[in-house]
Each structure stands twice: as structure tokens, then as C-alpha cells.
Specification:
It is built from 3 helices and 6 strands. The chain is of the alpha+beta class. Strands 4-1-3-2-5-6 form a 6-stranded mixed sheet. The two termini are 25 Å apart.
Length: 103
């Protein structure tokens, strides 16, 4: 995908080449940010709070690891998806609370 903007993902997901189990889209931080955040689902709060454990990536890096996210990438800010395991289908996450109000 070209001109999509960057994404944030945990290094546990990218370096471990793990499939996405939780993803959400928030308002972008700047014009180059897609707003997407990706997690493998095993990260605890302490891990995700450490900025050394989060990387900025081209979306194609994530797609090379897990192309099942592709149909969801057009979803608007304020949406979140999760799945029980790496082979289950994604469902809308109703329990995720965004830090700020989205338009």
C-alpha cells in the first residue's frame, strides 16, 4: 500500500513476526500517521507503556506478517478489532475505550 501513512506496532509483534490479535485506529498524530495501532495480544500494560517497545512502521511491514488485516484498514478512526487467537476472524471490540473523543 502506498501513501497510507505509518502505523505503530509493538516490537513483540514485528520482531517476533506474530499475527495481529488486537488493532485500533485513533485520530492520527500528524499527516503521516494512519492512526492504526497493532498488538499481538500478549503485551501487558507495563510493556506497552514503555516507548522502547513500540515502533513506527510502514503498513506493508505489518501486512507482510499478517495480511488478514487488509480488509479492515479502511475503517474509520474510533474503531477497534480483536480476535480470540491468530486464526480466528476479527470482531469489533466493543470494550476498548479511546483516550480522546474522535470525530
Amino acid at each position: 500500500m502506498n501513501n497510507f501513512g505509518f502505523v505503530f506496532a509493538t516490537k513483540m509483534l514485528v520482531e517476533g513476526r506474530r499475527k495481529v490479535r488486537f488493532m485500533y485506529r485513533e485520530q492520527p498524530d500528524d499527516p503521516n500517521d494512519s492512526g492504526w495501532r497493532f498488538f499481538c495480544g500478549d503485551e501487558d500494560q507495563e510493556y506497552t507503556d514503555n516507548p522502547d517497545n513500540i515502533g513506527i512502521y510502514d503498513v506493508n511491514t505489518i501486512l507482510e506478517i499478517d495480511d488478514s488485516i487488509l480488509p479492515l484498514l479502511g475503517s474509520p478512526s474510533g474503531t477497534a478489532f480483536e480476535r480470540e487467537d491468530e486464526n480466528a476472524p476479527f470482531t469489533v471490540s466493543e470494550d476498548f475505550a479511546f483516550d480522546e473523543e474522535v470525530d
